[in-house]
Amino acid sequence: MCDADNTTTKKTIRVATGDRAILPEGAKTIPIYIMGKKYDVPETLTIMKAMEFAGFKFLRGAGCRGGICGACPTVYRMAGDYKLHYGLACQTVVEANMYLAQIPFFPANRAEYNIEEIGGAAEAIHALYPELFRCVACNLCTKACPMDVDVLGYISALKQGNIKKAAQLSFDCIQCGLCASRCMGEIPQYHIAQLARRVYGRYIQPRAEHLAKRVEEIESGKYDAMLQDLSAMSKEELEKCYVEREREPDMTAPGAWQPKETRYL
Amino acid sequence: MAYTPEMKELIKRVEATRPERLARARRGENYPALTMAEREEVLSKYHPDYQSDAKRTVQVGPNKGDTFQEGVARLLESRSIVRPDKVNLSTVDFDTDVLVLGGGGAGTSAAIMASQGGCRVIIATKLRHGDSNTIMAEGGIQGATQECDSPYYHYLDTIGGGHFTNQRDLVAALAHDAPLSIAWLESLGMIFNKLPDGRMDSRHFGGSSRKRMQSAGDMTGAEIMRVIRDEVRNRSNLITTLEFHPAVELLLDEEGKCAGAILMNMETREFSIVRAKAVVIATGGFGRLHIKGFATTNHYGATMDGVVMAYRAGVGNKCLHSTQYHPTGVAYPEQNVGLLITEKVRGLGAHVLNIDGEQFCFPLEPRDVESAELIREAMDVGKGIITPTGRVGLWLDSPMIEELHGPGTVKKELPAKFIQFERHGIDISKEPMLVYPTLHYQNGGINVNGDSETIIPGLYGAGEAIGGVHGENRLMGNSLQDIITFGRRAGRNAASYIQGGVTLKGLTLDHVVKFEKELAEAGIEDPAIAPILLPDYATEEVVERRWTEALTDRAALR
Amino acid sequence: MKISYYPGCTLKSKAANLEAAAVAALATLGIDVEEIDRWNCCGAVFSLTADDLIHQVGPVRNLVRAKEQGATQLVTLCSMCYNTLARANRIMRDDAVKRDTINRFMDEEIDYAGEVEVVHLLTFLEREVGWQKIREKVKVPLEGLRVAPYYGCTLQRPADVGIEPFGSFHLMTGLLEALGATVTPFAAADTCCGSYQVLNGEAGARSTAAVILDNAAASGAEALATSCPLCEYNLGKQQGRLLEAGQITTAVPTFYFTQLLAVALGVAPESCLFDLNSAASLDLLKTKNCLVAA
Question: Is C20 helix (H, G, I), strand (E, B) or coil?
Answer without folding.
Answer: helix
